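Task card 7
Instruction: Convert sequence to C-alpha coordinates.
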Amino acid sequence: MLTPAPQPHKALSGSVIVRTTVLLCLCLLPWGVEHAAAQSVEIIPHWRTGDSVEIIVTRVREKSLDGRSTRSGKTHTRFSLEVLRAGPQGYLVGWTVGATTFEVPAPSESILRQVVGLMQGLQIQLEIDPRGAITGVRNREALRNQIREKLDALSDNAAASQGENADQALMENLRAQWDVMFSTKAQIEQVCTRDAQTYFRILGRTYTRGQHDEYQSVLDNPLGGAPLPAHTDIVLKSFEDRSRHAVLHWKQSADREQTDRIMRSIVKGLAAQRGKQVPEERPVNTVSLENQAEVEVDVETGWITKLTETKAVNLGTRAQTDTTFMVSEVKKGRDPS
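Output:
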Protein backbone atom coordinates (compact mmCIF):
# COMPACT_ATOMS: atom_id res chain seq x y z
CA MET A 1 0.00 0.00 0.00
CA LEU A 2 1.36 3.34 -0.99
CA THR A 3 1.54 6.06 1.71
CA PRO A 4 0.82 9.58 0.48
CA ALA A 5 3.85 11.79 0.54
CA PRO A 6 3.79 14.64 3.11
CA GLN A 7 2.62 18.00 1.80
CA PRO A 8 4.98 20.64 3.24
CA HIS A 9 3.07 23.57 1.78
CA LYS A 10 -0.10 22.69 3.75
CA ALA A 11 1.82 22.25 7.00
CA LEU A 12 3.62 25.52 6.37
CA SER A 13 0.33 27.24 5.64
CA GLY A 14 -1.18 26.00 8.91
CA SER A 15 1.90 27.11 10.84
CA VAL A 16 1.71 30.60 9.33
CA ILE A 17 -1.96 30.88 10.30
CA VAL A 18 -1.21 29.89 13.89
CA ARG A 19 1.70 32.33 14.20
CA THR A 20 -0.35 35.12 12.62
CA THR A 21 -3.22 34.49 15.02
CA VAL A 22 -0.87 34.58 18.02
CA LEU A 23 0.72 37.82 16.83
CA LEU A 24 -2.68 39.41 16.30
CA CYS A 25 -3.74 38.41 19.80
CA LEU A 26 -0.53 39.83 21.28
CA CYS A 27 -1.07 43.09 19.39
CA LEU A 28 -4.74 43.38 20.23
CA LEU A 29 -4.34 42.57 23.93
CA PRO A 30 -2.43 45.75 24.87
CA TRP A 31 -4.78 47.79 22.72
CA GLY A 32 -7.76 46.34 24.57
CA VAL A 33 -6.21 47.00 27.98
CA GLU A 34 -5.35 50.58 27.04
CA HIS A 35 -8.79 51.12 25.61
CA ALA A 36 -10.46 49.81 28.78
CA ALA A 37 -8.20 51.90 30.99
CA ALA A 38 -9.16 55.03 29.08
CA GLN A 39 -12.75 54.56 30.25
CA SER A 40 -11.78 54.86 33.93
CA VAL A 41 -10.11 57.79 35.67
CA GLU A 42 -8.78 58.07 39.19
CA ILE A 43 -9.24 61.59 40.49
CA ILE A 44 -6.84 62.38 43.33
CA PRO A 45 -4.66 65.42 44.13
CA HIS A 46 -1.28 65.83 42.44
CA TRP A 47 -0.58 69.19 44.01
CA ARG A 48 2.75 70.89 44.58
CA THR A 49 3.88 73.27 47.29
CA GLY A 50 3.16 76.78 46.07
CA ASP A 51 0.24 75.84 43.82
CA SER A 52 -2.36 78.59 44.03
CA VAL A 53 -5.96 78.77 42.88
CA GLU A 54 -8.29 81.75 42.58
CA ILE A 55 -11.98 80.83 42.80
CA ILE A 56 -14.93 83.10 42.07
CA VAL A 57 -18.14 81.80 43.63
CA THR A 58 -21.52 83.15 42.54
CA ARG A 59 -24.60 82.23 44.55
CA VAL A 60 -28.19 82.76 43.45
CA ARG A 61 -31.20 82.09 45.67
CA GLU A 62 -34.74 81.84 44.32
CA LYS A 63 -37.88 81.37 46.37
CA SER A 64 -41.36 80.52 45.19
CA LEU A 65 -44.83 80.19 46.65
CA ASP A 66 -47.59 78.39 44.78
CA GLY A 67 -45.38 78.25 41.71
CA ARG A 68 -44.66 82.00 41.56
CA SER A 69 -40.90 82.53 41.56
CA THR A 70 -38.81 85.61 42.31
CA ARG A 71 -35.05 85.94 42.56
CA SER A 72 -34.31 86.93 46.13
CA GLY A 73 -30.55 87.22 46.27
CA LYS A 74 -27.28 87.05 44.35
CA THR A 75 -23.73 87.35 45.68
CA HIS A 76 -20.16 86.97 44.43
CA THR A 77 -17.32 85.82 46.70
CA ARG A 78 -13.65 85.35 45.88
CA PHE A 79 -11.55 82.63 47.53
CA SER A 80 -7.77 82.17 47.32
CA LEU A 81 -6.17 78.75 47.77
CA GLU A 82 -2.50 78.00 48.32
CA VAL A 83 -0.76 74.68 48.91
CA LEU A 84 1.34 75.45 51.98
CA ARG A 85 2.82 71.97 52.18
CA ALA A 86 2.71 68.85 50.01
CA GLY A 87 4.12 65.45 50.96
CA PRO A 88 3.47 61.70 51.24
CA GLN A 89 1.21 62.26 54.27
CA GLY A 90 -1.03 64.70 52.43
CA TYR A 91 -1.43 68.44 52.07
CA LEU A 92 -1.84 71.62 54.07
CA VAL A 93 -3.94 74.06 52.03
CA GLY A 94 -4.63 77.67 52.94
CA TRP A 95 -8.23 78.58 52.04
CA THR A 96 -8.58 82.37 52.32
CA VAL A 97 -11.99 84.03 52.25
CA GLY A 98 -12.19 87.14 50.10
CA ALA A 99 -14.73 89.93 49.78
CA THR A 100 -18.41 89.28 49.09
CA THR A 101 -20.37 91.63 46.86
CA PHE A 102 -24.16 91.80 46.71
CA GLU A 103 -25.61 92.12 43.23
CA VAL A 104 -29.15 92.17 44.61
CA PRO A 105 -29.60 94.36 47.70
CA ALA A 106 -30.34 92.38 50.84
CA PRO A 107 -32.61 93.37 53.75
CA SER A 108 -30.78 94.90 56.72
CA GLU A 109 -28.05 95.47 54.19
CA SER A 110 -25.52 97.27 56.38
CA ILE A 111 -25.57 94.71 59.20
CA LEU A 112 -25.77 91.73 56.84
CA ARG A 113 -22.81 92.91 54.80
CA GLN A 114 -20.73 93.35 57.93
CA VAL A 115 -21.69 89.94 59.31
CA VAL A 116 -20.83 88.25 56.01
CA GLY A 117 -17.55 90.14 56.10
CA LEU A 118 -16.54 88.60 59.44
CA MET A 119 -14.81 85.75 57.61
CA GLN A 120 -13.18 88.05 55.06
CA GLY A 121 -9.40 87.91 55.12
CA LEU A 122 -9.23 84.82 57.32
CA GLN A 123 -7.07 81.94 56.09
CA ILE A 124 -8.46 78.51 56.98
CA GLN A 125 -5.66 75.94 57.05
CA LEU A 126 -7.16 72.71 55.72
CA GLU A 127 -5.54 69.36 56.47
CA ILE A 128 -6.15 67.11 53.45
CA ASP A 129 -5.13 63.47 53.07
CA PRO A 130 -3.32 62.11 49.96
CA ARG A 131 -6.62 61.22 48.28
CA GLY A 132 -8.22 64.64 48.77
CA ALA A 133 -10.40 64.18 51.86
CA ILE A 134 -10.46 67.06 54.34
CA THR A 135 -9.40 65.66 57.72
CA GLY A 136 -9.35 68.81 59.85
CA VAL A 137 -8.74 72.52 60.34
CA ARG A 138 -5.27 73.10 61.77
CA ASN A 139 -5.71 76.69 62.96
CA ARG A 140 -9.23 76.43 64.42
CA GLU A 141 -8.31 78.07 67.75
CA ALA A 142 -6.73 81.03 65.98
CA LEU A 143 -9.85 81.36 63.81
CA ARG A 144 -12.07 81.34 66.90
CA ASN A 145 -10.05 84.17 68.46
CA GLN A 146 -10.02 86.20 65.24
CA ILE A 147 -13.81 85.92 64.90
CA ARG A 148 -14.27 87.12 68.49
CA GLU A 149 -12.02 90.11 67.83
CA LYS A 150 -14.02 90.99 64.71
CA LEU A 151 -17.30 90.70 66.62
CA ASP A 152 -15.97 93.06 69.29
CA ALA A 153 -14.93 95.54 66.60
CA LEU A 154 -18.32 95.25 64.86
CA SER A 155 -20.13 95.91 68.15
CA ASP A 156 -17.91 98.90 68.96
CA ASN A 157 -18.39 100.36 65.47
CA ALA A 158 -22.17 99.98 65.71
CA ALA A 159 -22.21 101.70 69.09
CA ALA A 160 -19.98 104.53 67.85
CA SER A 161 -21.95 105.16 64.65
CA GLN A 162 -25.48 104.66 65.97
CA GLY A 163 -25.09 105.73 69.59
CA GLU A 164 -28.23 105.09 71.60
CA ASN A 165 -29.96 103.75 68.49
CA ALA A 166 -27.55 100.81 68.25
CA ASP A 167 -29.43 97.53 68.31
CA GLN A 168 -27.67 95.84 71.22
CA ALA A 169 -30.12 92.93 71.20
CA LEU A 170 -29.23 92.20 67.57
CA MET A 171 -25.51 92.30 68.33
CA GLU A 172 -25.91 90.00 71.33
CA ASN A 173 -27.91 87.59 69.20
CA LEU A 174 -25.23 87.61 66.49
CA ARG A 175 -22.51 87.02 69.07
CA ALA A 176 -24.46 84.13 70.58
CA GLN A 177 -24.91 82.52 67.16
CA TRP A 178 -21.22 82.83 66.28
CA ASP A 179 -20.23 81.52 69.71
CA VAL A 180 -22.30 78.41 69.02
CA MET A 181 -20.82 77.98 65.53
CA PHE A 182 -17.29 78.17 66.96
CA SER A 183 -17.95 76.37 70.25
CA THR A 184 -16.51 72.93 69.41
CA LYS A 185 -13.98 71.37 67.06
CA ALA A 186 -16.80 69.77 65.04
CA GLN A 187 -18.75 73.04 64.76
CA ILE A 188 -15.69 75.02 63.66
CA GLU A 189 -14.82 72.43 61.02
CA GLN A 190 -18.40 72.38 59.74
CA VAL A 191 -18.51 76.17 59.34
CA CYS A 192 -15.00 76.56 57.94
CA THR A 193 -15.08 73.68 55.45
CA ARG A 194 -18.55 74.08 53.94
CA ASP A 195 -17.38 75.63 50.67
CA ALA A 196 -14.19 73.55 50.57
CA GLN A 197 -16.19 70.31 50.96
CA THR A 198 -18.27 71.30 47.94
CA TYR A 199 -15.12 72.05 45.94
CA PHE A 200 -13.16 68.89 46.85
CA ARG A 201 -15.87 66.26 47.35
CA ILE A 202 -15.44 64.33 44.07
CA LEU A 203 -11.76 63.63 44.83
CA GLY A 204 -10.48 60.27 46.06
CA ARG A 205 -12.43 57.92 43.78
CA THR A 206 -12.04 56.07 40.50
CA TYR A 207 -14.84 56.70 38.03
CA THR A 208 -15.76 54.57 35.02
CA ARG A 209 -17.76 55.98 32.16
CA GLY A 210 -21.31 54.67 32.19
CA GLN A 211 -21.05 53.20 35.70
CA HIS A 212 -22.78 54.83 38.68
CA ASP A 213 -20.85 55.26 41.92
CA GLU A 214 -23.61 55.08 44.53
CA TYR A 215 -23.47 55.30 48.32
CA GLN A 216 -25.54 56.34 51.34
CA SER A 217 -25.02 59.86 52.74
CA VAL A 218 -26.83 62.61 54.67
CA LEU A 219 -28.29 66.04 53.86
CA ASP A 220 -28.54 69.07 56.14
CA ASN A 221 -31.98 69.42 57.66
CA PRO A 222 -33.55 72.71 56.47
CA LEU A 223 -35.42 72.98 59.80
CA GLY A 224 -32.39 72.13 61.91
CA GLY A 225 -31.92 69.02 63.99
CA ALA A 226 -30.75 65.62 62.83
CA PRO A 227 -29.45 65.35 59.25
CA LEU A 228 -31.62 63.56 56.73
CA PRO A 229 -30.59 60.15 55.30
CA ALA A 230 -29.84 60.48 51.59
CA HIS A 231 -28.60 58.60 48.55
CA THR A 232 -25.69 59.88 46.45
CA ASP A 233 -24.99 58.94 42.84
CA ILE A 234 -21.93 60.07 40.84
CA VAL A 235 -21.30 59.24 37.19
CA LEU A 236 -18.48 60.11 34.79
CA LYS A 237 -20.11 61.93 31.86
CA SER A 238 -17.04 62.50 29.72
CA PHE A 239 -13.25 62.36 29.69
CA GLU A 240 -11.09 64.09 27.11
CA ASP A 241 -7.73 62.39 26.86
CA ARG A 242 -5.99 65.33 25.19
CA SER A 243 -6.87 67.94 27.83
CA ARG A 244 -7.09 65.36 30.66
CA HIS A 245 -10.32 67.01 31.79
CA ALA A 246 -13.22 64.95 33.13
CA VAL A 247 -16.83 66.00 33.67
CA LEU A 248 -18.86 64.31 36.39
CA HIS A 249 -22.50 64.52 37.39
CA TRP A 250 -23.27 64.35 41.11
CA LYS A 251 -26.76 63.84 42.56
CA GLN A 252 -27.96 63.55 46.15
CA SER A 253 -31.57 62.92 47.16
CA ALA A 254 -33.10 62.67 50.62
CA ASP A 255 -34.84 59.41 51.49
CA ARG A 256 -38.53 60.33 51.18
CA GLU A 257 -39.91 57.91 53.81
CA GLN A 258 -37.32 58.71 56.48
CA THR A 259 -37.49 62.43 55.71
CA ASP A 260 -41.27 62.44 56.24
CA ARG A 261 -40.82 60.60 59.55
CA ILE A 262 -38.15 63.03 60.80
CA MET A 263 -40.11 66.10 59.70
CA ARG A 264 -43.29 64.82 61.39
CA SER A 265 -41.28 64.40 64.59
CA ILE A 266 -39.99 67.99 64.33
CA VAL A 267 -43.50 69.37 63.70
CA LYS A 268 -44.85 67.47 66.71
CA GLY A 269 -42.03 68.78 68.87
CA LEU A 270 -42.68 72.38 67.85
CA ALA A 271 -46.42 71.93 68.42
CA ALA A 272 -45.80 70.45 71.88
CA GLN A 273 -43.70 73.50 72.82
CA ARG A 274 -46.73 75.66 72.04
CA GLY A 275 -49.15 73.38 73.86
CA LYS A 276 -50.75 72.08 70.68
CA GLN A 277 -51.17 68.66 69.17
CA VAL A 278 -50.80 67.42 65.61
CA PRO A 279 -53.49 64.83 64.76
CA GLU A 280 -52.06 61.55 63.49
CA GLU A 281 -54.30 61.67 60.44
CA ARG A 282 -53.14 65.18 59.50
CA PRO A 283 -50.44 64.88 56.84
CA VAL A 284 -47.26 66.88 57.29
CA ASN A 285 -46.43 69.04 54.28
CA THR A 286 -44.47 66.94 51.82
CA VAL A 287 -40.75 67.66 51.99
CA SER A 288 -38.28 66.89 49.24
CA LEU A 289 -34.60 67.75 49.08
CA GLU A 290 -32.33 67.20 46.11
CA ASN A 291 -28.84 68.42 45.24
CA GLN A 292 -27.31 68.16 41.78
CA ALA A 293 -23.92 69.25 40.53
CA GLU A 294 -21.80 69.12 37.40
CA VAL A 295 -18.06 69.22 38.04
CA GLU A 296 -15.18 69.65 35.59
CA VAL A 297 -11.81 68.54 36.94
CA ASP A 298 -8.24 68.48 35.63
CA VAL A 299 -7.33 64.82 36.20
CA GLU A 300 -3.63 65.56 35.72
CA THR A 301 -3.55 67.82 38.80
CA GLY A 302 -6.75 67.10 40.71
CA TRP A 303 -7.84 70.76 40.67
CA ILE A 304 -11.51 71.54 40.02
CA THR A 305 -11.88 73.97 37.11
CA LYS A 306 -15.67 74.49 37.04
CA LEU A 307 -18.56 73.53 39.27
CA THR A 308 -22.29 74.20 39.15
CA GLU A 309 -24.46 72.99 42.03
CA THR A 310 -28.21 73.33 42.54
CA LYS A 311 -29.89 72.65 45.89
CA ALA A 312 -33.67 72.38 45.81
CA VAL A 313 -35.88 72.28 48.91
CA ASN A 314 -39.64 71.86 48.55
CA LEU A 315 -41.97 72.14 51.55
CA GLY A 316 -45.56 71.83 50.45
CA THR A 317 -46.29 74.82 48.21
CA ARG A 318 -43.07 76.59 49.19
CA ALA A 319 -39.81 76.03 47.36
CA GLN A 320 -36.28 77.36 47.56
CA THR A 321 -33.48 76.81 45.07
CA ASP A 322 -29.85 77.75 45.74
CA THR A 323 -27.48 77.63 42.78
CA THR A 324 -23.71 77.90 43.21
CA PHE A 325 -21.25 78.54 40.38
CA MET A 326 -17.52 78.06 40.97
CA VAL A 327 -14.90 79.01 38.38
CA SER A 328 -11.21 78.64 39.20
CA GLU A 329 -7.85 79.68 37.80
CA VAL A 330 -4.82 77.55 38.75
CA LYS A 331 -1.21 78.71 39.03
CA LYS A 332 1.30 75.91 39.47
CA GLY A 333 3.91 75.99 42.20
CA ARG A 334 7.46 74.72 42.27
CA ASP A 335 8.47 71.17 41.40
CA PRO A 336 9.02 68.97 44.47
CA SER A 337 12.68 68.78 45.48
